[in-house]
Amino acid sequence: MDPSIEPLGDSAALVAWDALDSDAASSAVQTAAIHLDRCAIDGIHGIAPAFKSISVWYDCRILTWKEIAQWLSDALRSVPSFEETTRQQVDIPVCYDAEFAFDLTTVAAAHDLNVQDVIQLHSSAIYRVQMIGFSPGFPYLAGLPRELHSPRRDTPRTRVPAGSVAIGGEQSGIYSHDTPGGWQIIGRTPVRLFDPQRNPPCLLQSGDVVRFIRIDRQQFADYAELK
Amino acid sequence: MNRLHIIRAGLCSTVQDLGRMGNQHLGVPVGGAMDRMSHELANLLIGNAASAATIEMTLTGDEIEFIEDSLIAVTGADMAPVLCQADTEPRSIPQHCPVKIPSGARVRFQAAQRGCRSYLAIAGGVDVPLLMGSRATDLRSAFGGHHGRMLRAGDQLAVGALSEFTPGIFDQLSISGQAPRSRWFVRPVDLPSLGCTSLRIVQGTHTSLLKLSQRERLSEIVFRVSAQSDRMGYRLSDHRLILQRHPEIFSAGAGPGTIQLPPDGNPILLMADCAPTGGYPRIGHVISADLPIAAQLRPGQLIRFEMVPLERAQELFLQQRQNLAKALAMAKLMPPQAIT
User: Fold this and answer.
1) Which of B161, B188, B215 is the last residue of a domain?
2) Helix or strand or coil: residue B141?
């Protein structure tokens, strides 16, 4: 299916696969983003994949809207039909201790599960990074088992600690900074998701495959100290 | 090496440059100076590259001591800066032109009399570490700039190496010991008036979903920039916009200028430090050429939106860049002279 191409203000274009379901759109987005990135022309200075769309930022001193729209339309026709598996697989240690897992019992009770079931389900699934957004390095992860889908909190917390592993709707995510947040918090990772002094600064990128590895409180402390 | 010493800090003073364009896929805001025109102008007036880091001051300014003889330019909001030296009466410092500051002197910025954000450029630029290609402060994620935070009293900021263009400007200003400044000034973008400021916008994905009566008379609706406004965005109040139906929205790209409409109907105008994605309907985008004036709006000021075609928006941006270049070219023809 051909995506729609429309202006996103006067310095970006939005390529969207709105009619596709989440999985199909996500896979179209990943493949197209890699392709666009690879053949980007002068004047394009940012390609950012989201759930069902890609934003392409351009300099209107170099490219007019007509030119960028034409280029996108041509480039999108030559996207390879198979997905290239250049993305990394990342294991992320998570401590599900009550100390960090503010909403674990709430999530368990809402689904008639016990806490161990929730941990087991969450740490045995395989996730895919659909998008990095919200704050630098925050991954939106698809692949959360249906039994754990949970609504956001009615009242968001004013501060969620960095590293908090969370559930929001059908997705899992990891807070990369101390920020306000409304997702259900079920654990914490000692790993730093974003460090501007590191290259690359983000641990994860769009398209990566993620597994959560359960660690205990002592391992968390050891890991945090190592850092 | 020259240094700046912050004696007293303003309300929200940060180190800024042209930001971190191209990192949106990492969730990193573009950031950088809110009023990029004023930031660039301040730099270019004293021979810096446009990308050199400046100090952005918000509503109230800092008091800053200059350790060595310095060449500075102040642009943007009028914070009535005053030069204070031992044994000398305080003198007001002109804006939008190069000014020489003797070593040991202090410049005291006051509350903004017009506009919201003032920019102080120093020859050589504020030298904080480059992170992801920029020296801009990202307050929300607490990185970049000076330790990822606002400036406070006692901070010392290093100054970078002078460009090849600076010494010429500096020497000409040194001829006389009197009020060392140029006799011209450059101001390519005006500050918002005290009345209602018109911001030009282009269509957004969901403009067509606005209630017909509001869509047809959008330019007549006057919004107020609410007190909940910062570098991430302005919450607008006084009028609620209503959509005919609520579309299913998936988080998608957003940037400075994007106008989002949350369920409460009060639009949010995203500014420099906004997240690169947003999950609310996009009812329009303030055009690039009007972002500098938007950056100078103060909480409480009134705005309205005027729709223009995309081609026009891009023309206006190009014109604005050409005007800046022309103004600077003319400034070069008039050598800076010291006046009494």
Assistant:
1) B188
2) coil
